[in-house]
Amino acid sequence: MRKYEVMFIVKPAEEEATNAVITKFENLILNNGGNIEKIDRWGKKRLAYEIKDFAEGFYCIFYFTAEPAVIAELDRVMKITDEILKHMIIKEDE
């Protein structure tokens, strides 16, 4: 298992909708054998430039350990989820 962090920006929406998106990815990692160490919710922030006609987004970061296959699935699902404006997955150095 390797250490990773994923940062993603969720479209601005009501709190329930935002929490549902975050929970979706939390469950995706856990159900595929990953282990989440920490979740940082930065909250709604102004974007440096408009992304998909949005000037704000809800920032969230997961710190977790998982196998590389989980990362491929996480990346695939984030790309097809309409609520995600941007995401970035980073492998942490050991």
Automatic annotation (TrEMBL):
CDD domains: bS6. Gene3D superfamilies: 3.30.70.60. GO terms for molecular function: small ribosomal subunit rRNA binding; structural constituent of ribosome. InterPro entries: Ribosomal_bS6 (IPR000529), Ribosomal_bS6_CS (IPR020815), Ribosomal_bS6_sf (IPR035980), Ribosomal_S6_plastid/chlpt (IPR020814), Transl_elong_EF1B/ribsomal_bS6 (IPR014717). SUPFAM superfamilies: Ribosomal protein S6. GO terms for biological process: translation. The keyword Membrane does not apply. Keywords: Ribonucleoprotein, Ribosomal protein, RNA-binding, rRNA-binding. One of its GO terms (cellular component) is ribonucleoprotein complex. Coiled coil: none annotated. Transmembrane segments: none annotated. Belongs to the bacterial ribosomal protein bS6 family. PANTHER family: MITOCHONDRIAL 28S RIBOSOMAL PROTEIN S6, SMALL RIBOSOMAL SUBUNIT PROTEIN BS6M. This is 30S ribosomal protein S6. The lineage of its organism: unclassified sequences, metagenomes, ecological metagenomes. The gene is rpsF_2.
